[in-house]
Amino acid sequence: MLYILSKDNLEIKDIIQDSSYDIKQDINLTGKSEFKVAEKLLANEGDYIIHKDEGYKGIIENIETEKYRITYIIHANEIDNIFDRKVILSNEEIILNTGIEDFIKKTIEDNFVISNDDLLNKTYINVSVSTHTPINASIDTNDGIYNLRTYLGNVKERYDIYLDYKFNKDTLDIIIYRSNAEVLEVDATIEDIITYQEFYSVDVVSKVTVLSKGTGNTFDYFLLTDRTTTTDKNNPNRAKGSIEVETCETDDEAYQKALDTFKSNSYQHNIEINLTKDSMIYDINDFYIGRNLKIKTNDNGIYHTFVREINKKSNSNIYIVKCGNMKVTLIEKLKGVI
Q1: How would residue 303 be classed by pLDDT, with cut points 50, 70 and 90?
Q2: Taking the model in full, what pTM does it have?
Q3: Residues 221/230, Cβ–Cβ less than 8 Å
Q4: What are the C-alpha distances in Å from 16 to residues 51, 83, 291?
Q5: What is the mean pLDDT of residues 100-126?
Q6: Cβ–Cβ under 8 Å, residues 312 and 26
Q7: DSSP, residue by residue, 228-247
Q8: Which run of H or E residues covers position 323?
Q9: pLDDT tens by residue, 160-198
């Protein structure tokens, strides 16, 4: 069942039964979903759409009809696209002094709720935080400007920061928090996992050099075979691989920048698993975007990864779960690149 809520005041504009759906979500918050209905509905671009059965919340991008058929297709973006807008960086010190969550809250309020443009403000948004995660890291901007949705995807992947959206009668309540969920262990060899595919990058980043733009100083960090890091280039347990060069604003931010680079490097793979919805071993709700996983494969390999994409279809009993941050296209497969 689909619920359509007004983008202006959250009033329910329509309730309609969908005939099929194809829900896609990803770590970049750019997943595009489709819902088919058999009758015309009251909805406009920018209205909110809720799929009760799958717990999906999104924003309508457009509605189209199929030629020669009385069918309407609703195209929707993930609800985080409320914040798909460039904003001017301010209050960055909150990230270090209080936490990422508090910085996001302040940014949302200042730019989307109580800005100096009343016509564009969404005054029904109510933001709160339940955790505080201070880090010493600057935001990458283009001359002081950045896209807030992009930043939300980055902090979900790097620091497990989530936004939980809940529609009430007159408000859209958003809770910002850091997930403390344990790593989910997945055995890809059991029958509940219908199939899986693996692709890996052979180029491992084992050294990160960070340039501090504030002072011109450089800092070298090295990856060890146990996945920890060191500044000792002579450590006998150094891993072999390539070098990555990054920049940061101040000397104090260099270590965090290196850690973020190494973490991203550890996810240079693509593992796709097909999981049956009625699994008696895994609760499908335990697989959500950003969830950290530890996957065991046929070669007894243990791979640390995270959920990058999820695809749910109404005509299938299978959830497609993609892990890691390396995207593999058909063209790449055919060319033998991977």
Answers
A1: confident
A2: 0.87
A3: yes
A4: 10, 27, 32
A5: 96
A6: no
A7: -EES-TT-TTBPP-EEEEEE
A8: strand 318-323
A9: 999 999 999 899 999 999 999 999 999 988 888 877 777
